[in-house]
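Help wanted!
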Amino acid sequence: MIEIRNLSKTFKLSRKRRKEEGASGTDGFVKAVDNVSFQCRPGRVFTLLGPNGAGKTTILRMIATLMKPTSGTIEVDGFDTLQSPREVRAKIGFLTGSTNLYARLTPNEVIKYYADLHGMEPSRFRQRKEELFELLDMNSFADRRIGKLSSGMKQKVSIVRTIIHDPAVVIFDEPTTGLDVITSRSIINLIRRCTSDGRTVIFSTHIMSEVSMLSDDLAILHEGRLLYCDTWRSFREGMVETSLEEEFIRTLKGDKS
Amino acid sequence: MKTIITVFRKELKDSLRDRRTVITMVILPLLMFPVLIGLTSRFVTSYEEQAQEKTLTIGLSEGVGAEGFSAGLEDADNLSVITGLSLDAATEMVIADSLDAYLLFHEEFARQVEELGQGEVTIYSKQTEERAIEAGRIFDLLDEYEVELRELRFTGLGIDPDAYHVISISTENLATGKEQLAEMVGGILPYMFILFCFLGCMYPAIDLAAGEKERGTLETLLTSPVIRTRILIGKFGVVVLTGISSATISLIGLYLGVRYVSAIPAAFIDMIMTILEPGSIVLLLTLLLPLTIFFASLQLTISFFAKSYKEAQSMIGPLYPVIIVPAFLGMMPGMKLTAATALVPILNVSLATKSIIAGQSDPGIMVLVYISLIVYASIGLFFCGKTFGRESAIFR
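Answered by r_m:
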């Protein structure tokens, strides 16, 4: 469960950006997330949809305790991200599309490293690793250096790394960016599997097909503000346009007008 | 502690599988001294041999003096003599390198010698550093001629030629082997150790900070339930270890160089071996450790701030002159370790290493060196921790 209340995040602009935007009167600061509130429930996929720069990654980074909110609160499974960041991190798995792995290590070594960082018991680790390696058919390349693996194999390693410690909450930040169709499908399957296990899943995307394929709940973000937040079913039923893409653009335009 | 060890072990394994780290940490420091010593001794030896064995072509002017000199050269090895040359012709030949030197015996030479004066001889040659040995050979020939003439003069005067020497001068060098060595190589060794400490830290520091950022692995690492300081200490430990290992391996390289490279004078080998005594090594390493911590924190701070591996490299690059200048100043003759220089980072290590090699380290000043190094290392660590904790640096 993730509970977000009145969340805002302000960044100080770099000197270069300040110069560029001097006339527009930003006072040297930009609001990346502006008073956002929503709730992600266990067993459901919560989708953050928005164009580039909407604030999706910033929200996910704040949930993962990588960034601190300027104001507002975030609770993950009852733990506040500012008060108990370690407890929060123990509960989450985090996967991004731009995430890479340690090319000079083997899948076995990488998975063991993350399991150790999560303080997993050796017996629990062995059991969970065997389970996941079997499930994703990874045993044939478990001892090969990651730098020599195909992108599909690497993605499997990333998936296992994300969920080896059995997290209650899984965060996916544009997880299929730059991946081919087959590899993207393995991520989609993982997201589905996570919800069927009763985990809370939040994922960000700007790919419409993924929204319709996975979402239980949907939030549309634009320039840091929440334009829509309800169930995917309600959104679909209330659509004025014929396609999701058109409806999404209409929502953004509505925000501008 | 367990998480620090986990991070340390992983980072060490990862770094040791990086070819660039292995080259700068092991191969370069191990080979540098043997190659340097081998090439220098081979070059010097072969240059000396060539200069000694080269057939010198010397031209002589006309006259009795030149003839007398020429007569004594008949049995000389590697020597070709052209007699009766005019100054103009000889000058052209010297300039064209067909003559190594021209000896002009003054036309009054015979009379000057006969009247108990000094016969004048002028040498025309190209007086450059690389021809110093050849010039020495010509002076030796003239010296022999002078001895011959002096003996004739003394005998003619009824004086024992041995009575010429009124004072017999001999010298005893009371400087210890270590002191002589400090003078000779004491400047260059600290410079090399400092450089290896810096280079040894460089690639791991860039890879473990900017490299992780660029790969996106830092973001996932920071979402693990580990206190950031522990991650930093684990990474920091590896960078310091590679830096200090690099310097230690260079010591092994130095040992191998003097032990197994031929054509090094035995006295020189003995002197070098005195700095490889356990006591000197321990002192050296205790100096290099805080310096390496300072370098590691400096490079990690920059690397955590940089957006990419390339940017980190281009930001750390300009540090070279900053490191090299004080290390180089330590090589200057007359530069001593004082209370003031003990406070200048890098220069203090350079001078303290020199004094350790010479066996002349002042305990009071050394304490000052250690204190200043610890202070600099702490400041470096503080900024490193600050940068690692700043989200504006991590997500720049």
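OP: Thanks! One thing I noticed: Chain A has one domain: 2-256.
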